Amino acid sequence: MSFSPRDTQTQHRLMGRCLQLAAQAPVCGDVPVGGVVVSADGVVLGEGFNTRERDAAPAGHAELNALAAAAAAMGTWRLDGCSLFVTLEPCAMCAGAISQTRISTVVFGAWDEKGGAAGSVFDVLREPRLNHWVEIQPGVRASECAALLQEFFSSRRDSAG
To answer: 63 catalytic, yes or no?
Structure first.
């Protein structure tokens, strides 16, 4: 059986794993975002969730953590043919890293209308002046991904209140 990041069952299953990862982030005070990098033949190479607060790491985004784990697993920074699944549209920093690693496809859940860089605010992943373009598949389990974020920020506002 061949792997396709465009297959809806595959998208649903892998976004489910991203949601499980995202749910780990709030335990440490981090925004609930989770990501998974999958090889061209469907093998999970790396996983990550936000760790900025936990690790005091400015670049501790789920996408970057998943990319780093995948690169370590492959023994190279080039992730040609791989796909990234993530619960939230990547920001500009993550989109730049995604482009640099040569990821082929990004599948994400919720749009980030304030800082997204895959089509909402910016479109770094498909910027024609760059040397690598990434296919995007947005909106996979979007309501579940958005709800996780809304619950997180709502609880923070309530506790600050």
So the answer is: yes
